[in-house]
Amino acid sequence: MSFGYRVLGFGSGGGASPYNVQYLVVGGGAGGGGGHGGGGGGAGGYRTISTKAFEVDASTPYSITVGGGGDGTSENPDIANGPGENSVFSTITSAGGGGGNSYGVPTGGAGQDGGSGGGGGRGIYGPGGAAGSGNTPPVNPPQGNDGGAGGSENPSGNPFRSGGGGGGASQAGTAASTPTAGVGGDGSPSTISASDVTYAGGGGGGTGPDGNQTNPSGGAGGGGAGGRHAAGQAGTANTGGGGGGTGQNAVGGGGGSGIVIIRRLTASSSSTSGTVTTSGTDTIHTFTADGTFNS
Fold first, then answer.
1. 3-state class of 94 per DSSP?
2. For 263-286, how does the pLDDT look when each residue is reduced to its tens digit (9 = 90+)?
3. N or C: which end of the chain has fewer CB within 10 A?
4. 8 A C-beta contact, residue 40 and residue 245
5. Pairing of strands 61-65, 291-294
6. ω into residue 209 within 30 of 0, thus cis?
C-alpha cells in the first residue's frame, strides 16, 4: 500500500487572501480667480466609504496619486487656468477642483467644472460669470458641488468687485450678491485617520473695498478666504481646499493639495506603505504624495 500527501494548498502556490479596506480619496483644490473680483477655487473631489468594504488583492501593489493644488488665476481678464489635479487609488479617482475665474469685459469669466466647481468672476458693465459645475465627471454619491456665480458691476460704473464662492464637498459655493462676494462651500468631515478632520472646502470669492467689510470666508475644510481689496488666501495643503479669489489686481490664492488614506484591520496585512499609524485593531496608511500601497 502506498500513501500520498493530500494537504490543501501545499505546493499549489496558495498566497495571502484578499481583504477589505476603507478609503478616503481627495483631489487637489483649484486656484482662485485673479483681478478685481475673482471667483473662489473649487475644492477637490471627495470620495470615501465609511466601512471596510473595498477589496484589495494582497499580492498586488496599488499606485497612489495625490493631486496637487492648482495655481491661482492671473489678473488678466476672463482667464481660469488653475484646476486641481486628480487623486487616485485603484479604481477610485477624485477629480481636481474647478478653477475660479477672473473678471471679464463685459461678462465675468465662468468658473471651471471639476470635483467641485469654481466661482465665476465679476462682470465689468455686464453680468457676472457663470458658476462651474461640481461632481464632474459624475459619480455616485457625488464627489462635490457647484460653485457660485460672480457679481455684476453697477451700470453707473460703481466698482462693485465681487466674485462667486467655490464649491465644497458638502455645500455649493454661494453666488455673489453685488457688492457682497460669495463664500466657499463647506467640505465634509471624516474620522478615517482616527481624528475628526474636515476636507475639501471651497475658496471664498474676492471683493473690492466697496464690498464685504471682512474677507469673504472659505469653506470649512481648508478653503482659502477671498481677498478684500487684497490677494486671496491659499487653500490648506492635504485637504483639497480651494484657493480664495482676489479683490485687486493680483493672482488668486493657490489650491491645497489632496490626500489619500487607507484603513485596514491590522491582522489583514503587514504592509508599511505610506505614513503608518494605528487605532485600536486598525492600521492607517496616509499618503500626502505619490506612492504605492503594497497591500
1. strand
2. 999 999 999 999 999 999 999 999
3. N
4. yes
5. antiparallel
6. no
Q: Which residues pair with 264 in a beta bridge?
A: 283
What is the Cα–Cα distance from 228 to 214, expressed in whole angstroms? Answer: 7
Neighbours of 103 (CB within 10 A): 36
pLDDT in tens, 169-225: 999 999 998 678 999 999 999 999 999 999 999 999 998 776 555 678 999 999 999
pLDDT at 155: 58
Number of residues that this document lists for the chain: 295
The pairing of strands 275-279 and 291-294 is unpaired
Q: 191 Cβ partners below 8 Å, 6+ apart?
A: 197
Q: Give the three cell numbers for residue 160.
A: 462693485
* Cβ atoms within 10 Å, residue 278: 10
Rounded to whole angstroms, the Cα distance separating 95 from 42 reads: 11
The conformation of residue 135, written as its DSSP 8-state character, comes to S
CA distance linking residue 25 with residue 39, whole number of Å: 25
Cβ atoms within 10 Å, residue 17 = 9
